[in-house]
Structure formats: C-alpha cells, structure tokens
Design a protein that fits this description.
48% of the residues lie in helices and 14% in strands. It is built from 18 helices and 17 strands. The structure holds ligand ME8. The site of ligand ME8 has 18 residues, from helix 1, helix 7 and strand 14.
Length: 523
C-alpha cells in the first residue's frame, strides 16, 4: 500500500436549485459523491465532503412569485427536503451549505472584491439571450430553433432577450491559462467533456455578464447596491465558503484547492471555465479535478412534469431499500455516461447480485458455521487452507476494486467484486460442505472458515456502496469497527487473532433479502 495517496481529500457536489423537490438526478450525484467520500475515508484519507442548495437567482425568484410567497420561504422549505434526502440516502456530508447564509454572502463579496482589485470587473450594458432555467447567458450562435420559430438554449430551455446595466468579468483575458488548464491531464474527466470545453475556449471567450439589476434576490455587489451578483458567481463560491473563506482558516489550508468537484454534464462549462477564471483572477488556486457525470433517465426518458414520470428518490429508496438503490445506481451505469433506471432493473440487479449471490453466500456460510460448528472458529492447519481462492478474493477486494474506484470506474470495480462473490459460491457448490459433514468434518471446517475469511474481505471492500448492509454483515462476522478500513484487508493475521479472541458466530439474520417486483410494475 506504499503508493497510496493519504493527502486530505475535499469533495463537493453541485449545490442544487431548491425551486422544487429533489429528483433522481440529485440523488444520483449525492450518492456517487458519497461513494467517493466513503472510499477515500476507507483508504485512510482525511475527507471533507460538502453539498447543499443554491438558493438565489431569477429561477428561484420567479418560482416563488408563481407560488405567491417570498423566495426565502420557498428556499427554506425546499432546502429542507434536500437535506432530508441526503440523510435518508446515507449521504455522509460534513457540511450542508445554503447560499442564503450570511457567511456565504461575505465570502462571495470577498471574491468579488479580489476580482475587482485585479482589474477584471467593469460596468457596461448587457444585451443578449438569457435562459432562466439554466441561469445562463448564451451567444446567438449557440441557440437552436424551437417550435414555431422560438429560440432554445443548447439544453433545450427557453431563452429571453435581456437588456440591462451589468458588471462584466474579463473572461477573455484568461483564454490561454484556461486552455492550458483544460489540457492538464486529470483536470477534467471524462475525455469527451474535455474536448467539448477545449473547443469552446478555442472558439474565443467573450467577457461574462456577472451582475443583474432587474431583480434583487441575490448577493449584493459591494459598492453597487442596486446590483446583485449573477447567481453562478455566488453559487460557485460556495466551495470556498464552506472552508471559511475569506478567513485564513485551518480548513482553507488543509482542503483548498478542492480535490474533486463532482457535477453533471450540463454544468461543466461553469466549473471548468468560469470558476477557474474567477479563481485565477482572485489569485486563488484552481480545483485539482472536475468530473462531469452523465444523466440518469427514467426508462430511457428525461423526467419531466409534462411526461408525468418524475420520481421521488425517497419513495424509490423506501420501496427498494437505500443500499439496494445505491448499489444499483453505481453498478448499472458506467460512470460518466448517461444511464437508465426502472423498477424491474433495480429488482433484477438486487436479486441477482446482492440477494442470490452475496447475501446467500453470507447467509448459508454463517448458518452452517453456527449450526455445524457450534459457531466456533479454529486456527487453520496452514497445509489445508484453500489459499488459491483466498488470494483471488483478496486481489479483487484489495487491488482491483480500489484501483477502479480510484479512477471513478465504479461499475468495473464492482464487476471485479461480484466475480469474486461468484467464485466463492462456485467453491461452496463444488466443496458441498453440507455433504462433508458426514464424510470429512475436518474438511468441512476448512471450507466454511475459508469462506468466512473471504466474506470479511468482500464486506470490507463493498462498504462505500452499501454502508448499512456491509456494517451489519461485518457485525455478524465480528469485525470490529476499528478493523474495517482498506488497509485492514492486508492484515492477514486478523483471522488468527479473531479465533484466539473466542468469537462465536451466531445464527445469522438475513441482510440481503430478495425483492419482489411491485404489482404496478409487473407485466
Ligand atoms: O445546476 N441525472 O442545480 P440543479 C443526473 N444549482 N444528474 C442530474 C440530472 C439527471 N437527470 N439532472 C440534474 C444546478 N443533474 C446549479 C449548480 S453548482 C455551483 C450550482 C445534476 O439542481 C446536475 O448536472 O439543476 C447538477 O450537477 C446537479 O444535478 C444539480 O442540478
């Protein structure tokens, strides 16, 4: 494990617009970030994980107006649902930030002043297209033709012609350093998004409008009280606010620049062009990496109110189980690409891999140990151990899965893990310990204890995905909470000490029950 990076790790999600309740895309990003955070903690890194809600801007102001209430009332209610969702999905954030917090206003004004001090802000008049839904300015050349000759943004959202006095940021000045940054290996993944951004910058950057005067729901521009900051200026600054910026806090020293901004593919431009440019201007280090994940589709379709297919992620978790949903999302979709989900797919995947394979392996092994060996484990005779199987399992758990997770290739890492589970099940089937009970009880003991050891590796490795279920299994195996890190996988004397401690395997309760397809979904 000598080459493992143990430096502090700061991971953030996008902060979500609380103009409505959370949808499955929000859950997907939160879960993915949580898997990464847990994975890095298990590798021994000090992790700081931030998420939250992005509460300013015209989109929030208009939504509140439609509902006849203040933006703050809307934000307070909806932000609460996002926090509840995170808690319900076992998303282990350290900080849930809300951009209405006074500290955040202070941080946003501080970065603004630093950009101003750099000579990068000037007052002018904005005249052009704006999409409220994307909270983004677009160039005429980027627009598409909608129905009836209307204009649409590249994300298919309506745009409106906007004319107002505005502060501008000298984005054009940063063209060269941005290109260099975008070409830095590892800065932006996956590669397809990188190429898109490079092409955008190479096409020429225009200065960016960064304040609005036609509404006041936002962070006030210092010294220009009739202006509020463009919502993305304050939103992006959340990543610094959470560390105590502009104060020189220990958190700033330890965790900035961020290790990873995890975001969806639609907001890569903001994170890899605008944000680094703001930081360069403010003379702050730029984030080390940005990953733009794909979109999650409902049976191949984008969820929308008009299609009536919007899914409440909490209802999904309640129906299928939090850990099953987490496992499914990371297993089913190649991370970085778009993916699809459906009730059938969740049930099929859970039953095939978690219930019938891993769960069944644990349940039958522990039951046999409890019943046939009175739950007592013994030292191995080294000549009898099935070392081949154990080294195969150890390799999958301690090397292959972590190597793939380190590259955010979750489905590939899980594939290595599930193959190890299959190998164990095949071993149990071939060895048939139930038959050995009469013919060769010593051999039966070796087989069951071998699987017991394999289960420990498999349960430790899979913790980032199914934290509660893995913990329940590790409890049943008697693996102490201080012995569950990835480094513990290399502690090959653990079993001997465990035996000597006199641990007795109790009759297990099933942890990975099979799911039934809900009646409404069954054909
Ligand atoms: O963009 N599948 O907020 P947001 C997967 N406030 N991910 C999805 C998705 C889907 N169907 N739909 C959205 C914002 N996302 C800004 C961010 S950050 C300083 C400000 C992702 O609520 C989306 O790509 O519209 C983004 O990363 C996150 O959900 C929040 O989207």
């Amino acid at each position: 494990m000598a080459d493992i990076d143990t430096s502090p790790f700061y991971i953030t999600t996008a902060i979500n617009y609380p103009n409505g309740r959370p949808h499955i895309g929000h859950a997907y990003e939160g879960i993915a970030a949580d898997v990464i955070a847990r994975f890095q903690r298990l590798r021994g890194r000090t992790v700081r994980f931030q998420t939250g809600t992005d509460e300013h801007g015209l989109k929030m102001a208009r939504k509140a107006e439609e509902q006849g209430r203040t933006p703050r009332e809307l934000a307070d209610e909806m932000s609460g649902y996002f926090r509840e969702m995170d808690e319900a999905l076992s998303i282990s954030f350290d900080r849930f930030i809300r951009t209405v917090e006074p500290d955040h206003h202070r941080a946003s004004q501080a970065i603004w002043e630093q950009m101003e001090a750099a000579g990068d802000l000037y007052l002018d008049r904005y005249e052009g297209w704006y999409s409220v839904r994307d909270e983004a300015y677009y160039d005429e050349s980027e627009l598409k033709e909608g129905e009836g000759g209307t204009k649409l943004s590249p994300q298919d959202t309506p745009v409106e012609w906007t004319v107002e006095e505005s502060w501008f940021f000298r984005l054009s000045k940063y063209q060269e350093p941005l290109l260099e940054l975008l070409k830095t290996p590892g800065f932006l993944e996956p590669a397809s998004r990188r190429n898109e951004m490079i092409a955008f910058v190479e096409g020429g950057l225009r200065d960016l409008s960064v304040s609005r005067t036609s509404f006041d729901w936002g962070v006030k521009v210092p010294g220009s009280e009739n202006h509020v900051m463009y919502v993305w200026v304050d939103a992006l600054t959340n990543y610094l606010t959470g560390l105590g910026f502009p104060d020189e806090t220990p958190e700033m020293a330890e965790f900035w620049p961020a290790s990873l901004h995890l975001i969806g593919k639609d907001i890569v431009r903001f994170h890899t062009i605008y944000w680094p440019a703001f930081l360069m201007s403010a003379k702050l280090p730029v984030p080390k990496a940005v990953f733009g994940h794909g979109f999650l589709l409902n049976r191949g379709q984008k969820e929308s109110k008009s299609l009536g297919n919007v899914t409440d992620p909490l209802a999904l978790a309640e129906q299928f189980g939090v850990d099953n949903l987490r496992y499914f999302l990371m297993r089913e979709v190649a991370f970085g690409q778009d993916g699809s989900y459906s009730a059938e797919a969740i049930v099929t995947r859970t039953n095939a891999e978690l219930a019938n394979s891993f769960g069944n392996l644990a349940q039958r092994t522990l039951s046999m140990i409890a019943k046939n060996l009175d739950g007592t484990l013994e030292r191995f005779d080294p000549a009898q151990v099935d070392a081949d199987l154990l080294s195969q399992i150890h390799k999958a758990c301690a090397q292959e899965l972590p190597a793939e997770f380190g590259k955010y290739a979750f489905s590939v890492g899980i594939e290595a893990w599930i193959k190890a589970v299959y190998a164990c099940n095949q071993y149990v089937d071939e060895q048939a310990p139930w038959a050995l009970k009469k013919t060769d009880p010593e051999r039966m003991r070796v087989v069951l204890q071998t699987i017991f050891m394999a289960l420990r590796d498999l349960a430790i490795a899979i913790q980032p995905l199914v934290p509660e279920k893995a913990a329940a299994l590790l409890d049943q195996l008697g693996v102490g909470e201080d012995a569950r890190s990835y480094a513990d996988l290399d502690d090959r004397d653990w079993f001997t000490r465990h035996v000597e401690s006199g641990f007795v395997v109790a009759k297990p309760t099933p942890i990975f029950p099979r799911l039934d397809l809900p009646e409404s979904e069954a054909a």
